[in-house]
């Protein structure tokens, strides 16, 4: 005879709502427990890693790298200013443009990179 609404089979209060066997609940707890244990291990690793970094040394390194970067930028800017002072004959610029099929700014840069020396510029462009 099929149970009616009044005759529902009683369930164990521990299993109420889950509808799962006891073994499956244990497996979930086991997997959940393992995941929890793994997370604790990861947390400990991160805590150990963070404590191994000396923030003062890190700040020193960052500031020294910033100083080196600034110095390199300053040197490049001063070199660029020095190169702009080099007088370049129009004929040499046109020769480099014509022979190497370069734009005027590219030809001027090539000449300036070689201190305005046409021979060095031609050799550098051939290499």
From TrEMBL:
Domain Nascent polypeptide-associated complex subunit alpha-like UBA as annotated: residue spans: 86-126
InterPro entries: Huntingtin-int_K (IPR052617), HYPK_UBA (IPR038922), NAC-like_UBA (IPR044034)
Biased composition (Basic and acidic residues): 1-18
Residue segments, region Disordered: 1-40
GO biological process: negative regulation of apoptotic process; protein stabilization
Full protein name: Nascent polypeptide-associated complex subunit alpha-like UBA domain-containing protein
């Amino acid at each position: 005879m099929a149970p009616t609404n009044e005759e529902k089979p009683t369930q164990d209060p521990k299993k109420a709502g889950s509808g799962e066997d006891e073994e499956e609940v244990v497996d979930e707890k086991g997997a959940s427990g393992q995941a929890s244990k793994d997370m604790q291990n990861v947390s400990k690793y991160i805590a150990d890693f963070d404590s191994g970094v000396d923030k003062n040394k890190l700040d020193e390194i960052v500031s020294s790298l910033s100083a080196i970067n600034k110095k390199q930028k300053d040197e490049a800017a001063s070199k660029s200013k020095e190169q702009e002072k080099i007088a370049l004959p129009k004929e040499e610029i046109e020769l480099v443009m014509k022979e190497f099929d370069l734009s005027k700014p590219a030809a001027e840069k090539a000449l300036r990179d070689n201190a305005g020396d046409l021979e060095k510029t031609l050799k550098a462009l051939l290499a």
